[in-house]
């Protein structure tokens, strides 16, 4: 058995390289044609019901506006009811025929069941679930004093999406619906000072990739990995603490448009801005170089300036 593993370890890489070199061009061509087909027959969400968590600000707020422009009905979820009401009013002005607001905390399993139930009681159906709610904490791992304080990051970013999805899946399956998951490029790009946030987003990607295999064609799942987007999570004070003030942030409106368009096309993945994919392939091909660059840029250079 050990001999077989050794043989496969030697034979598999060159064999896969040959197969890859032969099939890459036709595969990319077919993938492009499939993209054109999905774009032409993109889903019309007018009158359909969209549930969005973390809808009181940032990406969630603007995703709500983009669905509203497409005349979808909305169920908006967040902890801040006053902000939700403002978003709901704006969504109605933009064209949404019906909007409900449900104040809730996604880290509480009973709240997640309640807002899915309220959505079903009001609309009688559920077509898209947008798992957007998220928080972050910026600090070097060694500088945390009370490490358990970071449990809330996983509770909201990961478990909040799991609770919502578990309650929504039976309803989504009846409608051949879709799940949109707001992960992050931080799920595969090891940004310093964001260790717990990165871990929560990596967990999201892994979980929903697995769920997509389990559900098959019953429910579509689009995993979104945004880069730096203008929002409360990327305000100047937080960027300064993360030593990332020089990074160009994309507009929230532009990101939201890309997300809704991607969900309606039925894409498996969306990375926005798209140039961030270069860093993903850099991680695959030369991880040592990428990690050295990240450490030099976000950690060592600032430690040196502080020591001097």
SSE diagram, text form:
Layout (H helix, E strand, L loop, with lengths): L1 H39 L8 E5 L4 H12 L3 E6 L2 H14 L4 E5 L5 H15 L4 E4 L19 H24 L3 E5 L12 H21 L4 E7 L9 H6 L10 H14 L3 E4 L4 H9 L1 H21 L1
Parallel strand pairs: 1-2, 1-4, 2-3, 4-5, 5-6, 6-7
Helix pairs in contact: 2-3, 2-8, 4-5, 5-6, 9-10
Provide a concise account of the structure shown.
The chain has 308 residues and is α/β, with parallel strands linked by helices. Helices cover 57% and strands 12% of the residues.
Write structural notes for this entry.
The protein has 308 residues and is α/β, with parallel strands linked by helices. Helix content is 57%, strand content 12%. A 7-stranded parallel β-sheet has the order 3-2-1-4-5-6-7, with helices on both faces. It is globular. The model has no long low-confidence stretch (mean pLDDT 89).
Beta strand count: 7
Q: In percent, how helical is the residue content?
A: 55-70%
Taking all residues together, what is the mean pLDDT?
89
Strand order of the largest sheet: 3-2-1-4-5-6-7
